[in-house]
Design goal:
With 970 residues, the chain is of the alpha+beta class. The protein has 19 helices and 46 strands. The protein folds into six domains: 110 residues, no CATH class; 109 residues, Carbohydrate binding type-21 domain (Immunoglobulin-like); 301 residues, Zn peptidases (Aminopeptidase, 3-Layer(aba) Sandwich), CATH 3.40.630.10; 102 residues; 129 residues, 3-Layer(bba) Sandwich (Glucose Oxidase, domain 1); 93 residues, Sandwich (Immunoglobulin-like). The protein binds zinc ion. The site of zinc ion has 3 residues, from loops. GO terms for molecular function: metallocarboxypeptidase activity; zinc ion binding.
């Protein structure tokens, strides 16, 4: 903050030395008389040597000071930031200019960017340009390497769409490279008979990923072939042709345990959005009804509960200019206070409202001293022609008790800027419309009320939970109605009466800080009082009851502001899982299906309830369902976050997090902040979290991705890890969210700027995830034809964003579970674009989303069942195989099912410590092995169930691995 003396000082400098003569003349002509200070400093003179400018932040207290800074003529960035310390602007100034500005009283910060920084930037740019040019040169000479990652068409309801992802070597280095896709018009037609379009260059967290279609493109007819052309400077530098294959074609893999038609399946067990109390009651009823197939598992960590302390916020009414009856303008008008002038008393400054006359041609602008103004009135002045401080000073000099300026252009009023310590009356602005209404209602009396609430605010909070007595406490801040009274707090049962202190004139003098201390001293058994968000609390307290200030309307009591009916318990909630399976002793493969980490995702508990009922009610009649229930151990948690669920259903629909308030007393812990408390449970886990430097969470207690004070701080998150660790037979997990239509897995987070930090799944595991997605997403599609997009299937951090500390990563990396995440609720095709469905779609749509993703959950069980039947050794073949080749050979593997392949090139026996086949990059195919001299390659394949090719035992002595000799004949 710049001290007032400093402000006066530099204004003096500027007026004397720096204002252009024309501006000085015009200000004088308008009646503004700049006050010239005596202690001026010398005009700026550049030094006798070359200086390099630096970027510095300069903070000024208000617009007038900013104008003064602008008038110095220094180089300022076109951006002003409103900060707590004042207006912050960046200047590009030399060290001697900085010294000069400081001597003129400006608050000049330390350099943000120096000559070294600029030199480094220039060098970095030069290097990048050189790299791009070298890459372009290489591409021009030897062509672009193009790798087609996705060339897919799919049906969504009745329409056909295509999606492409193509990695370009030249395009990875240069944005000048463009990729164009040309389609045929179906089998038997030529490429080019269909449409042609350009792909976007997809860069994530500063890293080139690939080129892609941003959204699925509607295409008709269905293409069968495509050519991708890579272009640089109008020349073709690469070209590749590819089949366009159907994504989610409804075909299921064959083999033991493979999915079949479901046959007649009873569905449709949901009819409204449910809160966690209802969802829990439903699974308890199901368990009671089917004791031979299901039981309730109580999770050990109770939630904090759908409960809060009761609160009230005592504050003056909002700033207004009120006009009294019987004027036609009677009513309250919004006022925005000025940056200068006296503070408005909280109960307001009353007076007759008088439209000013300054005796000029524009008499109501008040740019000259006022004539015939009755002292003690409120001056109403039109904006225009001279500075705001001039108008208000003239009003004050004429005896006005307050000044209201009417805007002269339409729109909202704004804070009048200016610096004028001699102005002590309060001032504010009303809109043009309101100003006209008030003028039409004159003569009238009115009151201007104070705009700045925070110093006057007192928060009172019960020690007891609202439902345990907090809601019964009443608090009143009373005006004693007599002069010279002391501040008194009387406690009678649950009633706290605060009698505010008054001065000899009967005006209230108790400040917020004094009232806080008095309440805590006298009523500390019942409540705690505190000032607003750490404010000093030196404002006078306004007399009112809780509901008159800010509380539950219609009651003088404190309130927990919770509106769920009484059958929603206010006690800590025991989260329950429904365990379904013929044998629930840990001997079968376990599957953990959980919903509603995020409270507002109302569709997700319905996915859980629909699936639970399908499994239990179809057991007798449906062979597929019976097979799943007989052979799997299924844990269904309809609502991980019951407190948030209750709050979202009954109070604040967009609640994402749990209800636990981690904000400090001097932070956002008052009732105005109650919708921004809680921990994002899907950021509260141990792996890849913000405390380890991963991206995609926050340490702010009011952020919607608040990670909590530490990993697993929240009971809801600990319940999830307990389930997984207490039941080691759990091999699969699904973390169900909305919305967007995604099927995702690890890694779910990365560090910046490297965009890594968590190990990617192995080649075999990731291929297994893609195979599983084929089963699960085809099942989803069977319900009403909704296709999840191929671009939304993959690792969370590749297809959505980095989500530091999510539960899927915890299950995958900590407990070796095949852990997936759904975003149910795919976008809907409107005929000419995609429309998002939102968190709380109309139930009609929400029901369909729950039905189709329940299909997906059963698809997961089919995948798990197939896994439990997988005793078949995988097969793999080298391509090309053993033989004699001229020159280097690139080797890859074909395989019968998703496998990891371990290999050696040095003749040794392959083991789990040997090199492993990996992906060439995210969303790419396998990285080939390049052989340049005669080599015998030895390898074995292992599937995700642990079966090895030929039953080879990598840790035994056997020699039944695969081998092939590649002879290079130079
Ligand atoms: Zn979510």
């Amino acid at each position: 903050m710049v001290r007032p003396s400093a402000i006066r000082r530099y204004i003096g400098v500027i007026a004397a030395l720096l204002l252009p003569a024309s501006l000085l003349v015009s200000l004088t002509a308008q009646g503004n008389e700049p006050e010239l200070a005596d202690d001026t400093v010398a005009e700026y003179t550049p030094p006798g040597h070359l200086e390099y400018p630096e970027v510095v932040a300069i903070t000024v207290p208000d617009r007038t000071a900013l104008d003064a800074l602008v008038d110095t003529g220094v180089d300022l960035a076109e951006h002003v930031e409103d900060t707590a310390a004042g207006l912050r602007v960046e200047a590009i100034v030399t060290p001697s200019e900085q010294d000069w500005l400081r001597s003129a009283g400006f608050d000049v910060g330390e350099p943000l960017l120096t000559e070294d920084d600029f030199t480094a930037l220039q060098e970095e740019r030069q290097e990048t340009v050189a790299e791009i040019e070298a890459a372009e040169e290489r591409a021009m000479q030897s062509g672009d390497d193009l790798r087609v990652q996705r060339a897919a068409w799919f049906r969504n309801h009745d329409e056909t769409f295509v999606q492409f992802e193509v990695w370009s070597e030249a395009g990875s280095a240069s944005a000048d490279v463009t990729l164009e896709v040309s389609l045929d018009a179906g089998p038997g037609t030529e490429i080019g008979d269909g449409t042609t379009f350009t792909l976007s260059r997809f860069v994530d967290a500063g890293h080139y990923m690939f080129h892609r279609t941003n959204l699925p493109r509607q295409e008709s007819p269905v293409p069968s072939r495509a050519r991708i052309t890579s272009m640089l400077d109008g020349e073709v530098i690469g070209e590749v042709e590819t089949d366009v294959t159907e994504f989610l074609d409804g075909e299921y893999p064959s083999g033991p345990g493979a999915p079949k038609e479901w046959g007649d399946l009873a569905t449709g067990f949901i009819d409204h959005y449910v809160d966690a109390t209802e969802a829990t009651a439903t699974i308890e009823e199901l368990a009671a009804e089917h004791p031979e197939l299901a039981e309730i598992v109580e999770l050990p960590n109770e939630t904090n509960g759908y409960r809060r302390k009761a609160q009230a916020l005592f504050q003056p009414p909002s700033p207004t200019f009120t006009i009294d009856p019987p004027s036609s303008a009677a009513g309250a008008y919004d006022v925005v206070g000025a940056s200068f002038g006296g503070t408005t008393p909280f109960r307001g400054t009353p007076g007759d409202v008088v439209l000013v006359d300054d005796g000029t041609d524009n008499p109501t602008e008040g740019c000259s001293p006022l004539v015939d103004f009755e002292a003690g009135s409120i001056a109403l002045i039109d904006r225009g022609s001279c500075p705001f401080v001039t108008k208000v000073r003239h009003a004050q000099e004429a005896g006005a008790v307050a000044a209201v300026v009417a805007n002269n252009v339409p729109g909202d009023p704004f804070a009048m800027g200016g610096n004028a310590p001699e102005v002590t009356i309060p001032a504010g602005m009303v809109s043009l419309d309101d100003g006209n209404t008030i003028k039409a209602g004159l003569p009238a009396a009115g009151t201007l009320r104070r705009p700045d609430l925070d110093p006057h605010r007192v928060v009172v909070e019960s020690l007891a939970w609202g439902h345990e007595g907090g809601n019964d406490i009443s608090v009143e801040m009373a005006d004693p109605g007599e002069p010279s009274q002391p501040l008194k707090v009387d406690v009678d049962g649950d009633d706290i009466d605060v009698s505010l202190a008054t001065d000899a004139d009967g005006a209230i003098t108790s400040t917020a800080a004094e009232v806080v201390d008095a309440i805590n001293a006298e009523a500390g058994e019942l409540v705690e009082a505190y000032t607003f968000r750490g404010d000093d609390g030196d404002g006078v307290v306004y007399p009112c009851t809780a509901d008159e200030c800010y509380g539950e309307p219609g009651t003088p009591h404190l309130s927990d502001f919770l509106s769920a009916p009484d059958d929603v318990s206010r006690e800590p909630f025991t989260v329950k899982a429904l365990r379904i399976g013929k044998q629930r002793d840990g001997s079968n493969v376990g599957v953990l299906l959980y919903s509603q980490e995020h409270a507002r995702e109302w569709v997700t508990p319905l996915v859980a309830l629909e699936t639970a009922e399908r499994l239990l009610r179809n057991y007798e009649s449906n062979e597929t369902i019976r097979k799943l229930v007989d052979n799997l151990d299924v844990f269904i948690v309809p609502s991980v976050n019951p407190d948030g669920s209750h709050y979202s259903i009954h109070d604040f629909a967009l609640q994402r997090r749990n209800m636990t308030n981690h904000c400090p007393r001097d932070g956002v812990s008052d009732p105005l902040g109650r919708n921004s408390w809680g921990v994002d449970l899907n950021r509260n886990f141990r792996v890849g979290n913000i405390h380890q430097g991963f991206s995609g969470a926050s340490t702010s207690c009011t952020s919607d991705v608040f990670a909590g004070p530490e990993p697993l701080s929240e009971p809801e998150a600990r319940n999830e890890t307990w389930l997984a660790e207490e039941h080691p037979n759990i091999r699969f997990a699904m973390n169900t969210h909305t919305h967007g239509g995604y099927f995702m897995w690890a890694p779910g987070a990365y560090r910046l700027p490297t965009r890594d930090g968590l190990e990617r799944p192995s080649f075999g595991v990731e291929n297994y995830f893609y195979e599983a997605s084929d089963i699960i997403l085809n099942r989803i599609k069977e319900h009403r034809g909704t296709s999840v997009w191929s671009s939304r299937v993959g690792p969370i951090s590749d297809v959505l964003y980095s989500a530091a500390g999510n539960s899927g990563d915890d299950h995958f990396y900590e407990n070796d579970i095949f852990a997936w995440s759904f975003e149910a609720g795919s976008p809907l095709w409107t005929g000419n674009g995609w429309s998002s469905v939102g968190f709380t779609p109309p139930f009609e749509e929400g029901r369909e989303e729950a039905m189709e993703f329940s299909h997906g959950w059963i698809g997961i069980l089919e995948v798990a069942y197939r896994y439990s039947r997988d005793w078949v050794p995988p097969r793999s073949n080298l391509s090309p195989g053993a033989g004699t080749y001229e020159g280097p050979v690139e080797l890859a593997f074909d395989f019968s099912e998703p496998v990891d392949i371990y290999y050696t090139l040095d003749g040794s026996r392959p083991t789990y410590d040997s090199p492993r086949i990996e992906f060439a990059g995210p969303r790419q195919g396998q990285e080939p092995i390049t052989i340049t001299e005669t080599t015998t390659i030895k390898w074995f394949a292992v599937d995700v169930a642990g079966n090895t090719q030929n039953y080879y035992k990598p840790d035994g002595p056997g020699r039944n691995y695969r081998r092939a000799t590649i002879v290079i004949d130079d």
